Amino acid sequence: PYYVDMDQNLFLQASLHSSDQNLTVFVDTCVASPNSSDFRTLVYELSKSGCASDDTYSLFPSPRSDIARFGFNAFSFVNRFPSVFLRCELLVCRYHDFPSRCYQGCVSRFRRNADS
């Protein structure tokens, strides 16, 4: 466990460990839960499809393509839960494969009107 104060800035880093130097990593979706084995019942969405869902969530520049950096302010699930657990989905793509999902950034999907 990592203990922090409420509203403290948390900075995280995900590293890809591979002998293939032509890969890049992208943080797609991150959710938090008070239960380490249940990320469906009570969750808080930090990011989805590369888009920030929480006002304090940010992606940060990285020195290398195989490292993704992001952060947010610490929070709790209404004082009755002592812990917050994270589950993040990361994507691995070919470096400089610009049409790949890793290079699209925030992707918000909108529904079309039935007559369009």
From TrEMBL:
<dbReference type="InterPro" id="IPR042235">
    <property type="entry name" value="ZP-C_dom"/>
</dbReference>
<dbReference type="InterPro" id="IPR001507">
    <property type="entry name" value="ZP_dom"/>
</dbReference>
<protein>
    <submittedName>
        <fullName>DMBT1 protein</fullName>
    </submittedName>
</protein>
<dbReference type="Pfam" id="PF00100">
    <property type="entry name" value="Zona_pellucida"/>
</dbReference>
<keyword id="KW-1015">Disulfide bond</keyword>
<feature type="domain" description="ZP">
    <location>
        <begin position="1"/>
        <end position="109"/>
    </location>
</feature>
<dbReference type="InterPro" id="IPR055355">
    <property type="entry name" value="ZP-C"/>
</dbReference>
<keyword id="KW-0732">Signal</keyword>
